[in-house]
Amino acid sequence: MKVLAISGSLRAGSYNTALARAAAELAPDGVEIEVYDGLGLIPHYDEDLDQEGVETPTSVAELRRRIDDADALLVVTPEYNGSTTGVLKNAIDWVSARHRGSWLRNKTVAIAGATTGEYGAIWAQQDLRRILGIAGARVVAGDFPLPRAYEAFDESGTLASPLVAERLRNHVAALVHEASPLPVAA
User: Fold this and answer.
1) Which of the residues 121, 132, 133, 184 has an alpha carbon 20 to 30 A from that of 139?
2) Residue 98, domain CATH
3) Residue 184 pLDDT more than 70?
């Protein structure tokens, strides 16, 4: 199974990107989690640029292809002003344009978020759940809030908390379970 992890943060030392990388390291056998790193290359959404006969921006076409190739998504968001980030929302707009069809339609998605504050991006995750659901994604139950993220990672950005690692392992396992095809009865 192939999972694409998308971090909603562009910051080099992002705890959310570190959380996505940690998920890749904790993935169950047979599951590959690839961390997407092109979010900063996505242009502002403009429906005039998203029409038949107009060349799709390369970065957008690449994101759409990678989502299409993935069996599931893990979307990790920081919280800015009580919601998800503009760059993440912008990317979702590009991959869910209704007039072109949504690359998120029926895609199984798990949500996570890390902040330095006390709430672990719970508001951003609630907004993201709504946004992804409207775009047609199948968002799995259960969020993954990580408050005080600076306590969970060491100086190099490696997940150092065994408790957080176990929670993250379980969160990824739930995503994999939800995205797995049902067995065919004999």
Assistant:
1) 184
2) 3.40.50.360
3) no
